[in-house]
């Protein structure tokens, strides 16, 4: 889906820019973080102002975080995965729709599974795991996200409602979900998530990336 806060970088899979998101957040949430350390080593790739390819960027950014401790995904390999993602959408006759309007859950899941398989090597196996659809409360959702991050598994989180955007959770505190985001969004407040809140998180669209 298309995020409402985008960057001015126009190149597909533009090189990330430096930021200080963790320092900004610390001023009002000083609780210890559960985090994926790689979020401090490189920045997320950014999508362009005119596209709605946040799902493709989120999967690639999530794979970079998840793979880093075992065998990092290089910038060149990331570009190759981006190209393979575009080819996948073209084969599914969904490229035009994805570029202008984003993707729905089924296609997003299929794209993530395809790229995870392509990112796998003899040294690492990447898998996409879905959240338990039986989860009902936001406390359960936040516990699942925190547990995933604790295990080094980035979470692909759909932020529907106010943004209609797919992002990557890379750290969690008592009040915030910290994002590794293609649109430059640093974090969302937990209190803003839930039914009838600004950010609605459909459980059936929550995914995490595991690498072994």
Number of strands: 8
CATH fold type: Cathepsin B, Chain A
Order of helices and strands: HEHHHHEHEEEEEE
Oligomer: single chain
Q: How is the biggest beta sheet arranged?
A: 8 strands, antiparallel
What is the highest CATH level, the class? Alpha Beta
Question: Level of helix content?
Answer: 25-40%
What would you call the structural class?
alpha+beta
Report on the structure:
The protein is an alpha+beta fold and 212 residues long. It has one domain: Cathepsin B, Chain A. The protein has six helices and eight strands, in the order H-E-H-H-H-H-E-H-E-E-E-E-E-E. Helix 2 packs across helix 3 and helix 3 crosses helix 5.
Descriptors:
212 residues; alpha+beta; Cathepsin B, Chain A; eight-stranded antiparallel sheet; 34% helix
């Amino acid at each position: 889906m298309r995020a409402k806060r985008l960057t001015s970088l126009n190149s597909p899979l533009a090189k990330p820019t430096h930021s200080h998101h963790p320092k900004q957040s610390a001023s009002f949430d000083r609780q210890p973080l559960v985090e994926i350390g790689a979020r401090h080593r490189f920045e997320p790739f950014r999508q362009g102002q005119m596209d709605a390819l946040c799902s493709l960027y989120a999967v690639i950014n999530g794979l970079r975080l998840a793979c880093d401790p075992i065998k990092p995904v290089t910038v060149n390999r990331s570009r190759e995965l981006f190209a393979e993602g575009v080819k996948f959408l073209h084969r599914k006759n969904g490229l035009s729709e994805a570029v202008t309007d984003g993707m729905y859950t089924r296609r997003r899941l299929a794209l993530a599974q395809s790229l995870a398989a392509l990112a796998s090597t003899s040294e690492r196996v990447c898998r996409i795991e879905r959240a338990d659809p039986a989860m009902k409360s936001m406390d359960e959702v936040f516990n699942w996200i925190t547990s995933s991050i604790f295990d080094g598994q980035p979470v692909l989180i759909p932020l529907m409602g106010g943004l209609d955007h797919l992002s990557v959770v890379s750290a969690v505190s008592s009040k915030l979900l910290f994002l590794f985001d293609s649109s430059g969004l640093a974090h969302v407040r937990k209190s803003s998530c839930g039914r009838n809140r600004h950010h609605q998180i459909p459980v059936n669209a929550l995914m995490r990336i595991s690498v072994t």
